[in-house]
Specification:
Layout: E1 2-5, H1 15-19, E2 24-27, E3 31-34, H2 43-52, E4 58-61
Antiparallel strand pairs: 1-4, 2-3
Length: 84
């Protein structure tokens, strides 16, 4: 699974680090570090982290259908790609 975080959008709310600590971490007060190649076992946590980002700075390829489609944050299945 491939992750991309738009670090220009990221505001350091750290919701992703709370929900998927094996993938995301805060470095200092505002800098986010992450593993762009997350393991398949992290799928459900990643879906929640993507959905929880208040500024929609995280995109993840390969999350379709994960955890009740939480990655699309309540959008219709056809709209998930528009969230980027």
């Amino acid at each position: 699974m491939r992750l991309v975080v738009d670090l220009n959008k990221c505001q350091g709310y750290a919701q992703c680090a709370f929900l998927a600590p094996d993938v995301f971490a805060m470095h200092g007060e505002e800098s986010l570090i992450y593993d762009p190649r997350a393991r398949e076992e992290q799928r459900e946590r990643l879906a929640r982290a993507v959905a929880a980002c208040p500024v929609q700075a995280i995109t993840a390829d390969g999350l379709e259908g994960a955890a009740g489609a939480e990655a699309s944050a309540g959008m219709g299945a056809g709209d998930a790609s528009d969230a980027r």
